[in-house]
Design a protein that fits this description.
single chain, nine-stranded mixed sheet, binds 2-oxoglutaric acid, binds fe (ii) ion, IPNS-like_sf, IPNS-like_FE2OG_OXY, Oxoglu/Fe-dep_dioxygenase_dom, iron, metal ion binding
Length: 355
Amino acid sequence: MVAITVPCTIDQIPLVKCPKAANAAVPTIDLSAPGAAAAVADACRGVGFFRATNHGVPAALAEALESRAGAFFALPHKDKLEHSSARPFGYGSKTIGPNGDVGWLEYLLLSVGSSTIQASSLPPSLRAALEEYTVAVRAVGTRVLELMAEGLGLADRSALRRMVVDATGSDEMVRVNHYPACPLASSVTGFGEHTDPQIISVLRSNRTGGLQIMLRDGRWVPVAPDPDSLFVNVGDALQVLTNGRFRSVKHRVVAPEAGKQSRLSVIYFGGPAATQRIAPLPELMRDGEQSLYREFTWGEYKKAAYKTRLGDHRLGPFELPQAVTAAVKENTSTDHNCSSKAVQPPPPPHVAQVY
Ligand SMILES: O=C(O)CCC(=O)C(=O)O
Ligand SMILES: [Fe+2]
């Protein structure tokens, strides 16, 4: 990435440096089809990302949210700033987290408690649309977590779901990202590369692309937008719970170029309660298999992660030595042209922010 200096309204937003690539062949899984559990597990073992169809979220809910969120982002900047007081939650513009990450976007980051959005000051129609959508997307998260447990062969099909949707004090969030077309340059970072920290993320966007994922061989590839589908990605906590069987996928967003429609995405993040112990599920461990990570609680992870940058290797401090050796072997065998930190030997032990 190369930093550019542009007028202060943009500040210094890095460019994304990557050759043009064909759209990713994202695994597509019909959530209600027989065999969905095995397909989900395959996708999570592979790229760590899949497209979910037949997910049950009514199109009207997503469209209502899209139009109300669009109206919110069209408000004068000073009106939107009134919603930015409850950091890290609320409205944000161009800065992501407290540690210097910037992107060509504005967003609302909201905490979900008992299915309700914790943001009483939002315009009531937006809040209502967010709540309805959140209830529906949580149900998708529940179904996906059950399919994951089944696909992993866990006897207790509720083992993952219980950590997120059934747990008191679980760490669920909804984020609405708005990426206006960027008039000053192309390939401008919308949302810098990162992995999502939680257990799962469920994303929906409008018809404007920009999302890219990193394949296992280190290549960055664009994901074609599809407003009728939901995209699920494995988060860091799930990578640990499965002792690396499921892979937390690196992803990023490139801002739309001048003249293009804005990108609007809504992401549900399903994380556990602060006291939840995060360690490989004993039932998954084969005889003699060693944990790749030292045990931590979700609260410890978040605390460490808040101190770091978006693209940092946040699981690093929790990896045990054999995990680092395996990662070096994998990374040094890749060959590609994209600039990316993930194909370097693992960085020193520090972690990225949880946002
Ligand atoms: O806006 C997007 O499409 C993805 C954003 C993202 O990765 C995130 O909010 O964690
Ligand atoms: Fe993300």
